[in-house]
Amino acid sequence: MIHDTRTIFHASCIMYRASFLLLIICLTLVSCGKKGPPTLKAYEKPETPINLTAIHREDKIILSWSHTDKRKNLNGFHVFKSEGGEFKNIAFVAAGRYSYEDTDFKTGVSYRYKIIAQTLKNVFSDDSNAITVKPEAVPPAPKDLSAQVGNNALNISWKDSGNGIFYNIYKTSDKGKYGLNPMNNEPLKTSSYTDNLELTKPVYYTVRAILTAGIRHEGPPSNEIEVNPSDFTPSKPRGLQTITAEDKTVITWEENPETWTTKYRVYRKTAEAEGFKLVAEPFTPTFTIREKTGKKHTYRITAVGPIKESPPSESVVVDF
Fold it and tell me: In Å, how far are 46, 69, 154, 207, 281 from 181, measured between CA atoms?
């Protein structure tokens, strides 16, 4: 009997251990299921860099490219350069950046460039397109950049740099900081440019002279000019006339030619000692007087731009 009890107890222990082991295996399988089965995706070849282009600006060759691979395991890009022989790795650019500036070159010498992407697992992409750059002596900076605010546009001009020279014009709202892309779609053949007026904030312009053969060879920037809408001053209103009827007198004037005129201000002087006082701010070039006073009043008009006010118009006297 004792022997049977011990046997049963021993069997129970074995069954308990087996159940516990089975439980551990199940929990492990469940846990592994949450993580998903291991894959080799991290070791896949990254996408090839594309659209490699170059700009020769002053003492730099600026390389730019695109890359569509958004995986988090991208380490960066290797820049390769050749001077008539084998390509050599000259730089590494961290992931998230798609440009490189090469300053080690000579004018009149041809160079070839290409880009290769690399993952954190040290897997490399295929070569990007290769481009050839032969830096030429760049033209000097354009001189005497200036701007004239027109009625509906901004006219920018500068001194012509001579035959065979073209221009790129750049614009920014962040003083002194310009991108690589000019405003003009094609190189400018003349030393002038017309832009839309910015009426809400100051903007800045600069111009670079360029050679147009093949790669863009771009010289240093011109002086920078600021165009600030707070400086825009409308011309004074002209052509004031008065029309009197039985119950009112209407003052009219010519609409200001500046499309950026926001409104007008009407000033009235009753007595010489009092001076002119603001009585109305119409948006159209007309003002109606309805109160009969039997006295003479003198009126004059100003135009208002984004901020500044024009000089006053000629005065008209109304006896109503």
Answer: 28, 24, 20, 12, 43
The single-letter code of the amino acid at 16 is Y
Conformational region of residue 12, where left means phi above 0, alpha means psi within -120 to 50, and beta covers everything else? alpha
The count of other CB atoms within 10 Å of the CB of residue 257 is: 13
Q: What is the pLDDT of residues 213-236, one digit of tens each?
A: 678 999 999 999 999 999 999 999
Beta strands per DSSP E along 129-202: 131-133, 143-149, 154-159, 166-172, 192-195
CATH number of 241-319: 2.60.40.10
User: Which residue's entry shows tokens 């089965």?
Assistant: 37
**Amino acid code (one letter) for 28:** T
Which residue matches tokens 């003198």? 298
280 half-sphere exposure, CB direction, 13 A CA radius: 14
Which is higher by pLDDT, 59 or 19? Answer: 59
Overall size of the chain counted in residues:
320
CATH number assigned to the domain covering 43-133: 2.60.40.10
C-alpha–C-alpha distance, residues 130 and 316, integer Å: 74
User: Tell me: the pLDDT tens digits for 131-155?
Assistant: 999 999 999 999 999 999 999 999 9
- Tokens coding 179: 């991108």
CA distance 93 to 80: 11
DSSP H helices, 129-264, are none
**Identity at 81, one-letter amino acid code:** K
The first and second tokens of residue 117, run together, are: 């992407």
Give the pair of three-digit tokens for residue 45: 């070849």
Q: What is the pLDDT of residues 204-216, one digit of tens each?
A: 999 999 998 678 9
Q: Of 218, 203, 212, which Cα lies nearest the Cα of 141?
A: 218
From-to residues of CATH 2.60.40.10 in the chain: 43-133, 143-228, 241-319
- CATH for 143-228 is 2.60.40.10
